[in-house]
Predict the structure.
Amino acid sequence: MGYGIKLHVWGDRACFTRPEMKAERVSYDVMTPSAARGILEAIHWKPAIRWVVDRIHVLNEISFDSVRRNEIKNKISVSQSQIKSAMNRREVVLNQASAEERQQRMTVMLRNVAYIIEAHFEMTDSAGETDNPEKHYSIFSRRARQGQFYHQPYFGCREFPVNFELMEEEKSMPTSVYRNLPERDLQWMLWDLEYRTEISPKFFRAVMREGVIDVPDLYQREVRS
């Protein structure tokens, strides 16, 4: 039995990139379960626990912005001799001609986002003798109350930081602008990446009902590779 939490998260911008878009970054309509898990892990994670996202509440209206940015189209290859020399602690000059590598890419992002993440954690086989659910629940709750994190949580891209607040029993739940909308089909969405012998992406059919998306378990039939 996992310990459940509710975390209110919000920010000015977000980009949960669709994997089928190659040349340009185009965001999903809402936050993906893997992005929600990443926010929780930024606040507290240990090998002893595994975060499971149960529901995502969409609080604000879904709206988009677009921006065109200069980016570098290539990265320095590890196979280059200079890289291998640097890895062997030899003195080399590593550089990249940004003027020659520059290209413009469009990003279609979300603006003024706010969600409530409902999740729980489960103990893993890596748990030690001193690990127990009460301990990790207390650590997460304390850190979330105080606004602490191991690294800055973000909405899809690092330039979109997350503000967060722990929703405790005495705090009233924010209402969703979609609370009177019976159902909205958000199509197929990336659930997460499964790491076994190779990395396997998993997808599920995201349906928002009255502002709430129920996230299926990895091994349910609703999740597909």
